[in-house]
Q: What sequence folds into this?
């Protein structure tokens, strides 16, 4: 059981991991540590007991230039989508304006038809009143005509009805 004294960097090289990962491994397993004369930390490790297999990591992050290029491509793609969206929005705007004009025309026609309908109802009511006058006996028509011509003159019945409540 050979025990070796290794620094974090040396342990990382042997296990093909970074020195920071080696330090975390030592801390997790609570392996004994000590300081060397040069100030570096030495770890007592039995390499035959270690069952460490490094986890496959995704490739390193893209370099700065590759990242800039990919972002420029994404910007161009988004600008193209924006142009398409504006074209679609302009088409929708034209449809909206056309429908607004159509609605305004229909509303004007509706208002015109409503006023014509009210005029027709008024004329019908007037004609209905004239017709009812013609269907009454001639005496009643004469009284109605007289009361319409002279509204300030009251009939004898109306004066008697008006005087009766005041007499009490």
A:
């Amino acid at each position: 059981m050979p025990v070796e004294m290794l620094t974090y960097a040396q342990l990382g090289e042997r296990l093909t991991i970074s020195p920071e990962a080696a330090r975390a491994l030592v801390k997790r397993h609570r392996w004994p540590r000590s300081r060397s004369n040069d100030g570096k930390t030495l770890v007592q490790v039995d390499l035959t007991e270690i069952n460490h297999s490094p986890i496959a990591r995704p490739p390193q992050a893209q370099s700065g230039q590759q990242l800039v290029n990919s972002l420029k491509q994404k910007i161009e793609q988004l600008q193209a989508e924006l142009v398409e969206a504006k074209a679609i929005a302009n088409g929708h705007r034209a449809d909206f304006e056309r429908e607004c004009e159509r609605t305004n025309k229909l509303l004007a026609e509706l208002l015109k038809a409503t006023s014509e309908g009210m005029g027709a109802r008024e004329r019908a009511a007037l004609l209905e009143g004239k017709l009812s006058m013609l269907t009454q006996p001639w005496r009643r028509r004469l009284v109605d005509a007289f009361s319409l011509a002279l509204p300030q003159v009251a009939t004898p019945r109306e004066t008697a009805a008006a005087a009766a409540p005041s007499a009490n």
Observations:
- Residues 65-145 form one domain.
- DSSP finds five helices and three strands in the chain.
